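Regression test case RT-17, inverse folding.

Input:
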């Protein structure tokens, strides 16, 4: 197993998540899924692992992302590209099915680079996407379509003309596809920003309420220890159980991404002749908070604006800054008082506080323990205190 930082992992580099995979395959027998996970938890890697083992569960599986899509037709073309690249797919059968569903097309060409149309007037993206999905029902077996970064595309779409109406239309269209072709096709929708959050913010919760939510969190303590030991064995590094436990305790929330970062830094230092002990772990934690490494944490602040917009992003940053001042967090009373500095009306303040705490908890910033709201990730708390909090 290799140290891989920032990119999805596959094959031998993918570690564990066995219980999560079993649970998701059980649910996929009857439902499409909404995978909810904060950034850097390993969501994309998990989706790829599921698709790689799809055949073992009776599914032809494809994986794609909407992250780079500019409009609705771009999304449909990415869907076509993923489907036509599926292993063992008879493209002639798919092409025949599509031609039967889109009779006005003069010609249609499918290939490994996507879908090419030759017609006097291109079909509406809704018609093409519907025909593409319905055509899967004419082929053998069931299909699993795993789509990453759906919320990123929706937030991009919101910025365009008639953005909200287009987002509404796109989400209802996707919902119709899931319901009309449920017997043949299952979906997994995911993103580093919660799709449920984006939908709820714009009054579109009913567009995703047919999806079974599947939360994905950090590793459990025992899994995180095995993960670090597996990395150490791969690099022939003698890492004691004490060092493993100290890394996890100091991190606070054993997210695979940050475990990889910490292990990589440890390995480099040991290769340079330093002693692998808890003191070295402390030095690395301090060094990770220096400006050279701010890219590991900046996105946590940036995503609040992407996901919440103004003024809620400012309210959230204000709440987080109060939570960061004490490792044990802040009480709800303190957070109410903090928000009163920005929202005077009591009912509006209470509604906003409840809404933001729900989001900050589901997105991995905070956790409620013993009546207090504290940062899940101790490294993030220390970063927030040094570089964000006034």
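Golden output:
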């Amino acid at each position: 197993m290799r140290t891989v930082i920032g990119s999805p992992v596959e094959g031998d580099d993918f570690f564990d998540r066995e219980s999560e995979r079993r649970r998701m395959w059980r649910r996929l027998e009857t439902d499409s899924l909404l995978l909810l996970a904060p950034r850097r938890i390993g969501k994309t890697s998990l989706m790829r692992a599921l698709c790689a083992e799809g055949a073992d569960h009776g599914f032809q599986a494809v994986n794609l992302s909407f992250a780079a899509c500019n409009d609705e037709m771009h999304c449909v073309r990415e869907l076509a590209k993923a489907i036509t690249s599926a292993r063992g797919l008879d493209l002639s059968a798919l092409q025949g099915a599509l031609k039967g569903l889109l009779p006005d097309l003069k010609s249609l060409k499918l290939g490994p680079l996507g879908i090419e149309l030759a017609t006097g007037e291109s079909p509406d993206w809704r018609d093409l996407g519907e025909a593409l999905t319905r055509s899967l029902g004419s082929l053998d077996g069931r299909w699993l379509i795993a789509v990453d970064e759906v919320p990123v595309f929706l937030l991009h779409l919101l910025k365009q003309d008639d953005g909200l109406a287009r987002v509404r239309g796109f989400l209802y269209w996707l919902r119709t596809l899931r319901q009309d072709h449920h017997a043949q096709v299952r979906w997994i929708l995911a993103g580093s920003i919660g799709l449920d959050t984006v939908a709820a913010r714009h009054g579109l919760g009913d567009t995703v309420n047919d999806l079974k939510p599947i939360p994905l969190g950090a590793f459990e303590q025992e899994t995180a220890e095995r993960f670090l030991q597996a990395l150490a064995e791969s690099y022939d590094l003698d890492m004691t159980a004490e060092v493993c436990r100290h890394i996890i305790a100091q991190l606070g929330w054993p997210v695979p991404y940050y475990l990889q970062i910490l292990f990589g830094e440890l390995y480099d230092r040991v290769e340079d002749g330093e002693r692998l002990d808890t003191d070295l772990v402390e030095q690395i934690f301090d060094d990770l908070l220096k400006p050279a490494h701010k890219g590991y944490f900046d996105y946590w602040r940036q995503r609040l604006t992407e996901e919440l917009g103004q003024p809620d992003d400012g309210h959230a940053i204000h709440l987080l800054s109060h939570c960061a001042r004490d490792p044990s967090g802040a009480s709800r009373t303190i957070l109410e008082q903090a928000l009163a500095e920005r929202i005077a009306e009591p009912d509006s303040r209470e509604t906003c506080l409840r809404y933001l705490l729900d989001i900050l908890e589901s997105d991995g910033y905070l956790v409620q323990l013993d009546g207090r709201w504290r940062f899940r990730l101790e490294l993030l708390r220390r970063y927030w205190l040094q570089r964000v909090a006034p």
